[in-house]
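Lecture notes, unit on binding sites. The following record was shown on slide 14. It pairs a sequence with 5-hydroxymethyl-3,4-dihydroxypiperidine.
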Amino acid sequence: MNKYQLPSDSKLRSKEFVFGVATSAYQIEGGVKEGGRTPSIWDTFCKKPGKVDNGDSGDVACDHYHLWKQDIEMIQGLGVDAYRLSIAWPRILPQDGVVNQEGLEFYGEIIKECHARGLKVYVTLYHWDLPQYLEDKGGWLNRETSYKFAEYAEAVSQYFGDTIDVYTTLNEPFVSAFLGYRWGEHAPGIKGEREGYLASHHLMLGHGLAMPILRKNAPNAKHGVVFNATPAYPFTEQDQAAADYCEAENYHWFIDPVLKGEYPQLVLDRQASNLPMILEGDLDIISAPVDYIGINYYTRNVARFNENGDIESVKQTDAEHTYIGWEINPQGLTDLMVRLNERYDNLPPIYITENGAAGNDECVNGVVEDEQRVRYFQGHIEAVHNAVEAGVKIDGYFAWSLMDNFEWAFGYCQRFGIVHVDYQTQKRTLKQSAIAYRNMLQERAEENR
Ligand code: IFM
């Protein structure tokens, strides 16, 4: 297949629907000691033996810090409407209270170049690279960090204002809080139930504190937050409650406070002994209206109660999985969209801000055959179409990721890019999945001409 197919009457064919590609700062930039940047928690974490596969780090990554111009040219060549990137907090505020002009200018150049090439710019403020100096004071376990995040949002939005088309406060607070502070698999590597919940509340508070600041400084931009969400299915009929709890913890815990102004009862009950201190007024701050929510979808979860009454995931051995071990299930994306639509009366428009598949792709004679990823995208783009048909307002779709990059605790061995990166030479090669994306978008552009 050299082109993703869309039904002829699909909303996804209209030019109002946004197609894009996404990346994040630490995963692609490198240049960690350049431009006045100071270490983030990921620089520190990568140095700890055994934390990241193969001892990898984002020190060089895709060297986007130097190659950004050619990368943006490549993005334009794909024919997408938008580029979703993140800003590295430690480039903007390398020390507490000190704004680094060079950091602002670096992203200013990128934004200018994107606009010159007709790309809309979606910027995430926090894609997991907390400045280490804040971690040294407790990181997201310290309520003060929420206020520091608001200061950072002020610095960025004051400088960029409406030149950023769409602002995102946080990417996947579930991952920052739970993988970082509960299960210790991500930076800063802390393990503790209470810690995970405390970090989650402070992240959401940071989001809420940032919202009015962003609106004040960028009144014409859109503002929102991005969640990862994995729909859960019961393994047997008896396991419905297990599946319900998985969803509650995985995404209701993060979305409910924003859209309902409350935390979900299922989690409040089950985690009663781990709950953070929620001060009066916090939920009012967190539930400030958003213009959109971003959803990152990769896979589904099948859940059951084991013999101890604990909830566990059951791997579906008869299903197809990607290289990272995640089940491929496009129907899960449609179901998730419909479930969100049913759960929230005031659901704002959704962007699918990430969707993609990991492989261990190789470039052979300039060609990267990523047949599984091509099928993955075809299935998931159709799933988005089906959700739209079912009445869900979805305004855009971003492939994760533009190019192979530093996949956190997996280092470089999991390749999520639609563009292959040779890490020795930094050569970029469009995979078949990128070519199919480009061809679909080209056809759409011709139709809309
Ligand atoms: O690479 C990550 C990204 O940083 C956040 N969402 C999930 C992706 C794949 O794991």
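Take-home: The chain has a mean pLDDT of 98.
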